[in-house]
Backbone:
């Protein structure tokens, strides 16, 4: 599949994209970025079209009562990655500091506001309104989005609105695709023999139709994950090879109506830097939606989608001196996600203040594992899995537009969930069955909602919101035990849904070229799922009593001539509330959550021949484990790039990641072996557009 993807990308190499900060609008249209400042609590006209393919094509005004950010400078190609762009937003925490070129695919969950590190995402990630978490494990395949031509990312901090579906405990990260008009592509060469190629081709079809094809291919020899001084004879560079192709189609279906369809596939190959540690992820997504959106009249949407994932991964056992390595486990995880959604916005006095709708999501999956290797041959086999279904209905009323003097919003959602019969079977490959367990089906009801207000006077807006959200345990958390080195973690089929109560108050100041925002938040997450230490080298997934998290988020933005300076900072004070078997965790800080995080960036926004950016990013110290015995140090990194437009359609660019070559610890084992994130990486390339 990689070779096929590479062939498509190479044959489509008619190259490039706008310079950083260049206008995103098509000729004859307003630049949408003019009404989309990258600050918390953005002001956005209700009628503003964000990007093609983004649901009902307008951002709900009700989200203005909560902190958030709108990112329009999402530059594909030349080594840039969506997940690393999100790291610039302080408070967004990915389970590992390493990205999708070196992290294990199952470790890439994301959360906000200090709700605890977890490979299963506590934030809801969507692409054009479609949930993106892996159906089995809840992690996110970030490399899949590098092949999507994104027009923007909407970040809503804090859950509760319900319109996006369940699972948004910490907030929602909405990726929004954009139809290409013409041809664009890029080609770059980077450190460690890395290659990055992307291409998009879009054209009109018939009367009012559009079609876009996007492709991306990247590869590299990789770096040695284990830090210098701890390496042994078994450690080597960890190569990667990734690619994806997608096609999107839109055409008119009568007055004020459209049909949109998309199909995309991706393939991801990685290595963890030793023998027997290669992984493979293949995925295919397809969706179709019908939109009826007359201005000032009743609007409605109908959506259906399918999500297919297939993961294979090897795990290695490395000797204490790191001079020998043997296979420890081989895993395959096929999983499927299905879903549908309908939404209605009645026309009321030439407005659409009410949103009502319903949605359904089903996930099925299993893990198939070979382990207990001897002389390279597995001795035992395990299969475990199940299914889950969620059906929900929601309603939301918002009084006006985000730029009105006074706005209020009230929403509620009710969900019915089912966990199907789960199972776990273990047997000796050459012998009898060891374990044959079936887990009874369960079901229940959950409620969520949000209430908020925003009051604006001249350049200042005050806002407040309270919300409740929930998340169903993933099939991986419920049914799959696992082992890392000597550490064994047992599954727990009786895990309860996580539930969150939260609130925030904030202030926004917007005076043209100057924008400031601050938000105080407090969250109480009950039944928080965590790996709890029961005995030396023995853990189990359990529901903690709670995680309490409070803090402050600050952002500032200043436009200075042809450049924009932006800074973000988050302070998070999080603490575990635990009793019973988890009492040793009481009062401790959750794993993978730093107290301090922030970034400062400058980015060109002019239309001249030269452009560039620089981002200084800081992440504070954080614990690797639940007991706080293993600490990951803080890190300060610098990314920067320069571009030069040689002609209307041609530009060249140089950029670098982690230019200080800072050691960024991403993980630490019980034996003290430190895994690092991406070292200094340099790229040079060209972009063409027609």
Residues:
């Amino acid at each position: 599949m990689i070779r096929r993807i590479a062939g498509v990308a190479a044959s489509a190499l008619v190259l490039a994209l706008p310079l950083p900060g260049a206008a995103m609008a098509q000729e004859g249209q307003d630049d949408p970025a003019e009404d989309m400042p990258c600050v918390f609590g953005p002001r956005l006209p209700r009628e503003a079209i964000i990007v093609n393919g983004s649901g009902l094509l307008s951002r709900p005004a009700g989200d203005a009562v909560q902190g958030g950010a709108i990112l329009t400078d999402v530059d594909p190609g030349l080594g840039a990655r969506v997940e690393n762009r999100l790291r610039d937003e302080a408070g967004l925490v990915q389970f590992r500091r390493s990205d999708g070129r070196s992290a294990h695919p199952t470790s890439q969950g994301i959360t906000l506001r200090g709700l605890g590190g977890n490979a299963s995402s506590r934030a809801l990630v969507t692409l054009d309104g479609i949930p993106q978490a892996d159906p089995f494990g809840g992690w996110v395949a970030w490399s899949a989005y590098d092949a999507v031509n994104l027009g923007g990312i909407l970040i809503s901090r804090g859950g509760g609105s319900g319109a996006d579906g369940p699972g948004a405990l910490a907030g929602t990260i909405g990726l929004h695709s954009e139809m290409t008009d013409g041809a664009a592509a890029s080609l770059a060469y980077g450190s460690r023999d890395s290659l990055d190629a992307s291409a998009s081709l879009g054209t009109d079809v018939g009367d009012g139709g559009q079609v876009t094809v996007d492709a991306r291919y990247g590869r590299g020899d990789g770096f040695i994950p284990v830090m210098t001084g701890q390496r042994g004879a078994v450690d080597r560079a960890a190569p990667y090879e990734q690619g994806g192709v997608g096609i999107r189609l839109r055409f008119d279906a009568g007055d004020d109506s459209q049909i949109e369809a998309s199909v995309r596939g991706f393939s991801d190959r990685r290595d963890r830097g030793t023998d027997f540690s290669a992984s493979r992820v293949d995925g295919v997504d397809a969706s179709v939606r019908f939109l009826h959106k007359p201005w000032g009249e009743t609007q409605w949407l109908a959506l259906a989608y399918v999500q297919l994932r297939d993961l294979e991964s090897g795990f290695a056992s490395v000797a204490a001196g790191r001079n020998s390595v043997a296979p420890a486990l081989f895993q395959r995880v096929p999983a499927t996600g299905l879903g549908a959604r309908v939404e209605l916005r009645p026309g009321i006095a030439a407005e659409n203040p009410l949103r009502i709708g319903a949605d359904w999501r089903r996930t099925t999956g299993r893990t198939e594992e070979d382990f207990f290797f001897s002389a390279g041959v597995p001795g035992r086999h395990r299969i475990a899995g199940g299914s889950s279904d969620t059906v929900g209905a929601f309603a939301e009323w918002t009084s006006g537009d985000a730029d009105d003097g006074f706005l209020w919003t009230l929403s509620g959602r009710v969900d019915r969930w089912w966990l199907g019969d789960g199972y776990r079977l273990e047997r000796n490959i050459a012998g009898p069955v060891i374990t044959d367990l079936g887990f009874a089906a369960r079901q229940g009801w959950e409620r969520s909602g949000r209430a908020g207000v925003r009051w604006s006077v001249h350049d200042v807006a005050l806002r407040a919101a309270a919300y409740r959200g929930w998340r169903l345990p993933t099939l991986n958390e419920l049914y799959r035990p696992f082992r890392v080195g000597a550490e064994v973690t047992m599954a727990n089929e009786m895990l309860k849904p996580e539930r969150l109560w939260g609130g925030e108050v904030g202030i926004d100041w917007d005076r043209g070229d100057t924008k400031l925002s601050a938000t105080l938040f407090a969250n109480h997450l009950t039944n928080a799922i965590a790996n709890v230490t029961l005995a030396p080298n023995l853990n189990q997934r359990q529901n903690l009593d709670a995680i309490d998290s409070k803090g402050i988020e600050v952002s500032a933005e200043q436009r200075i001539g042809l450049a924009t300076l932006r800074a973000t900072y988050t302070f998070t004070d999080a603490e575990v509330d635990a009793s019973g078997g988890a009492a040793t965790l009481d009062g401790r800080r959750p794993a993978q959550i730093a107290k301090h995080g922030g970034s400062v960036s400058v980015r060109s926004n002019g239309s001249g021949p030269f452009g560039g950016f620089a981002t200084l990013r800081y992440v504070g110290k954080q614990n690797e484990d639940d007991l706080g015995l293993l600490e990951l140090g803080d890190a300060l990194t610098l990314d920067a790039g320069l571009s030069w437009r040689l002609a209307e359609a041609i530009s060249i660019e140089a950029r670098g990641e982690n230019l200080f070559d800072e050691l960024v610890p991403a993980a630490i084992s019980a034996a003290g072996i430190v895994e690092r994130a991406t070292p200094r990486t340099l790229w040079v390339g060209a972009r063409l557009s027609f």
Observations:
- The chain has one domain: 2-548+555-629+640-689.
- Helices lie at 2-11, 82-86, 475-479.
